[in-house]
Amino acid sequence: MDPGAESGGSYAVDVLGTLASGLGVDSRESGRKAMEVVRARSPELITLSEQTGEDLVTTSAGFIDMLLASLRSDVELPWADFEQRSRDYGRLRAAQGLPLESLIDVLAVYRRATIELLSRPIEGQPHYDEIIALAQSRLEDMTERLTTAIARGYLDHVGEEHRARESEMYGLAAIVSAMSRSLDLLETAEVALVEALAALRLSTGAMWLRERSAYKLAHTVGLDPDQVDDFARQAGPHVKAWASALGRSESQVDRVSGKEWNALRAQLRVRGRTVGMMTVGTMGDRVFGASDLLF
Question: What is the pLDDT of residue 147?
Fold first, then answer.
């Protein structure tokens, strides 16, 4: 073994720990500097913070604190706390509608900002390359753990949302089943359609009731009279589906797409019997994926 190499390695560990400890005292200033990069790379996060009043500098400082702590060998890291904070962050951002890719990108920004903060005081000093290489290795490990925790929190929310949607659809199936016994079919159909639109954050849809082998239009929301026929032709009961899925609520959900409409169509069933067909959609660019089909 090369004694000089061993001495240099120990020196790098000590210097890195001292730097991390000193920078951790003023991580808020570090967070403020990181925000300039976040502003350029993730403007949607900045817009969201302005709408909600969230202090993103504090959030940034919190992550930089965790990254700096991973560089110290003289303290025992509170991994459970770090991972829980990151998981809660992922869950919150999922609820706010931010894409997971943006969260991972922002975390990479914090890692690069931390490297920059470390490099400035020791630039041109002995063992500079060794110290920075050690820092990069440790930060990559830490970033990987935080990314995993954020992703788990994000998926926690997505899973909860899917279960909630599936539960809502189970209730909708029960509502539609009751239509066959209801004296006011139109009112009952309206309730089912409005609830589905709210669950999927849409504003346009139509409900058809099954009468023998045909479907009769029962109610529409958000459609002008001259749009109803086009909507039915492009996304109604008889349009071929692009993709389908079946949830626990016995409701087959299809993705349908026409010249103007992108839509989800639920073939509502109770005990294996189709009792109605409901389509909700948009003329916008929204593409319904696998997660939407599983509500």
Answer: 92
